[in-house]
Amino acid sequence: MIEPLTARELQILKRLSRGLSNREIAEDLVLSQGTVKWYNKQIYQKLGVHNRTRAVDQARKAGLFEVAQETKETAGSSPGENLPPHPTPFVGRKKELEDLSRIMKDPGIRLVNISGPGGIGKTRLAIQVARTLNSTYRDGAYFVDLSAIENPEMVVISIAKAVNFNFQSRGQSEEHGESYLKQQLLEFLQNKQSMLLLDNLEQFSGGLKLISEILRSAEAVKILTTSRERLNLQAEVLFTLGAMQFPQMKYKDDLDVFRDQDAIQLFIKCAQRARPEFDLTSDNAMDIVEICRLVGGLPLGIEMAAAWTGLLSPREIAAEIKANLDFLSTHFYDVPERQRNIHSVFESSWKRLSGSEREVFQRLSVFRGGFTREAAELICSAALMDLISLADKSFIKPDFAGRYFIHRLLRQFGDQKLREAAENEQIRDKHLEFFLKFAEEAEPRIQGGEQVYWLDKLECDLDNLRAALDWSRVSKGMAESGLLLAGALERFWGVRCYFDEGRQYLTAALSRTGADKSTAARAKALNAAGLLAYMQSDYKATQVLLEESLSIYREIGLAGRRGLADALITLGDMETELGNYEKADSLMREALGIMLELNDERGIARAYWQLGQCAVRPGDYERAVEYFEKALPLLKKLGEGSSTAIALSGLSEVAIRQGNFERAEKLESESLELRREIGEKWGIAISLANFGWMALRQGDLEKAGRLLSESLKLRVEIGDKGGTAWCLEKFAETSLTLGKRKTPPRNLDDYQRSVKLFGAAHAIRAPMSSSIDLVDQPAYEEQIAELRDHLDIATFITIWNKGKAMQINQAVDLAFEVVPW
C-alpha cells in the first residue's frame, strides 16, 4: 500500500517524470534546491524506492500521474503547450482534419506521415491535428521543428527539448555522444503515452532510424510527421495532402456555394488582413476562382496572392500570376526565407533531387493535365522507378486510373527548367508527335461502337492536345503536324461541343506559314473548320471554308474522293438551313453517289440521314422517313451512336409534325439516351427542344417552358445561334398561347412579350441569312398576323424593334419569364 503523496510531492514527481533536474524543479516551483532534495527523499520513501527513475515507474504503475492534474497557476507548463500557435487563423480542411484524427486514434497505427509538395499546408494541418488530439494522450502532444537540423545529435536534442527532458551526465566524455543521449531519451519515452509531431522531416533524413527505435521501445508513443517525401518505413501510413477545394464552374453561381469552398475561404480571410473591408461579391467571384485555379488550390499560393489585394484587384492579381510565377511572394519578416516566394519553396525541393531525377521531372513538365506511364516513357524516357521516386518526393501524384499529375505551380516551375534545357524543343516535338498519333488512332474509333470510350480518352488528355496544338504553331517544321492534329480532332470537338475552341485551333493551324499548300491535310482541316462553323450557324464562314476544301479535294483527285463527299454533305446541310432545298438535295446526292462508288457504309449512312433532314424542311415527310429508315440499319450496324441519335430525332420530328406524339416520344427518348451517353450537348439540346415542342403542341405550357429552357441554356452555352433563335420562337409561341387563354387586358403582357421574342429571334437569324423552315412558315406568319391583330400596328413595330435590339442574354431572361415554375 503506497502512502498518499501531498500536492507538492505530486508536483515535483510530475517534473521528475519529465526529466527536470533538481535545479530546474526549484526554479519552476520557486523553491530552494535543498527543499527539492528533501521532497525527493519523502517521495522515494513513500513509494518504497531509492532513485528517481524507479520512483517515476512506481508512480505510473500506481496511477499517481492521473491524480496529479495541475493548473497553470500551480503547476507550470502542461503537456501540449509547446504546440506553436497558427500565425493566422486555421481555415478549411475539415475533412482532412477528421480523416487524420480518425487515423491517429486507430490503436494499430503508430506512424503517420503527412506528405505533399511545399506550400500545401502540411505543418498547419499537423499542428491542428495535434491540438485536436492533445487531451487524448495522457502525456500530451509535442511539436518538434526539424527544419534547421544539421546533424543526427540535434534530432535527439530537439525531441528532448520539446518533451521537457533533461539529459543526465555521468562525467565521462565518451558517454556524451549521440548514442548515450539517444539511449536516455528512449528510456524516458518508454513510459510516455503521447504524440510526437516531427515537422519538416525531409530536411533531415537522419531522423528515420531514431523514429524506428522510438516506435520499438516506446509502445505508447505515436508519431505524426510532415515531409515532402515518403519515409519508406514499414510502420508508415502515408497521408498525401492535396490542394484546397475551389469551384470548378465556369459561370457565376450562388455566392454561398463559393464560400463553402476551402480555397475561397482562405483567400477571403487572407485578403481581409490586407484590406479589412474586402469580401466576396458577384463582381469579383469569378476572378477569385481564377486565382485559385492558377495556383492549383495551393494554400501558400493563395495566401501570397491574397496579400496583394491591398494594392491590386483580384482580376489584376490573376493577370500577374499568369505572367510571372515569381509574383507569388511575401515580404513578411516572420516567414522563413525558404517560404518567401513560390520559386524558393520549389527550388529547395528541386535541390534534393538527383541529377537524373531533375532531368526526368523537367521533361515531365511538358505534360498538361496529367499523363500516362506510356506517354512518360515514350516522350520523356521515364522508367517506372523514375515515376515512383518522383511520386515519393511529392513531385508527381499518381491516381487509381493509371495517370500521374503534377501540381499546376510545380509544373510551371518545371516548365521553366525545361525551357532552360538544351533538349526543350526536342521534348516538345516528341510530345506533339505522340499526341498526333494518339488523335489519329482515336479518330476512326469515335465513330463506332467504342465512341464513348474514345471520346472520354480524348477528353482526359484534352490539355495535352491543346499544348501540342499550341506548340505546332511555333515549332519549326511542325505546320503539317498541326494541321493533321487539328483535322483529326474535328469530330471530337463537334460531338463534345468545343465549337469555339476547335475553330480557333483550326484557324491558327490553317494560317501558319507552311500550311498554305493544297494538301489533303489542309483540305481536311478546312472541312473540319467549316463543319464547326456550320454547327454555330456561321454560314458565311462555312461557305468560304468548304469551297476551298472542295477545290483542294477535286484537285487531289481519287485520293480526295471521301473528303470531297464529306464536304459536299456539310455544304448541303448549310444550304438546307438557308432554305435552298433543291441545291442542298443536289449536293447531297452527289455525295451519296461518291459514297456508293467507294462502298463506304459510314459515308452512305451519313448521306441518307442528311437527305432525310433536307426533305423534312419543305414538308416532304414520306421521302424524309424513307431516307432516315435507310440510314438507321447501317448506323446501328456500325455502332454510330451520335448519327443514330440524329436519324432517330429526325424521325421523331416528322412524327411531331404529323401529330403522332406517342411515336415521337418513343423515338426521341431513344435518341436522347444515346446523346446523354455520348455527352453530346448539341444533340441533347435538340432532343430537349423536341420534347418541349411536343408539350407545346399538346397544350402543356408549363412542361414546354421547362424543357425549352433547358435546351435554350445549352444552346447559348455552346454558341448554337440557329438553335437559340428556334427556342426563342417557341417561347414566343408559348407566350402567345398563354395570352389567348386569358381575358383582356390581362393578356397584353403576354402578347407584347411574344412580339419581343419574335423580334429577338429575327435579329439573330438575319446576319446568318437563316430562314424559318419552309414547312413552318405558314404557322409563323399566322402567329405574327395574330399578334398584329391583338396590338395596334404602332405598338407592334415599337415592341418588335425593342426585341431586335436585345442582347441574347436579355432575350433569354425574357424567355424564362414566359412560364414561371
Describe the structure.
- There is one protein chain.
- With 821 residues, the protein is mainly alpha-helical.
- Helix content is 63%, strand content 4%.
- Strand 3, helix 11 and strand 4 (221-227) form a beta-alpha-beta unit.
- The N and C termini lie far apart (80 Å).
- 45% of the residues are buried.
Strand content: under 5%
Shape: elongated
Tally of strands: 8
Structural class: mainly alpha
Number of helices: 42
Strand order of the largest sheet: 2-3-4-1-5
List the helices and strands and how they pair.
Layout: H1 7-17, H2 22-29, H3 33-47, H4 52-61, H5 64-67, H6 72-75, H7 94-105, E1 111-115, H8 122-133, E2 141-145, H9 152-162, H10 178-189, E3 194-199, H11 207-217, E4 221-227, E5 236-240, H12 255-259, H13 262-274, H14 285-294, H15 299-306, H16 314-323, H17 342-350, H18 355-364, E6 371-372, H19 373-380, H20 384-392, E7 397-398, E8 403-405, H21 408-420, H22 424-442, H23 451-460, H24 462-472, H25 479-488, H26 490-495, H27 499-511, H28 520-535, H29 539-556, H30 561-577, H31 581-598, H32 601-616, H33 621-638, H34 641-657, H35 661-678, H36 681-697, H37 701-718, H38 721-740, H39 748-765, H40 777-790, H41 793-804, H42 808-816
Parallel strand pairs: 1-4, 1-5, 2-3, 3-4
Antiparallel strand pairs: 6-8, 7-8
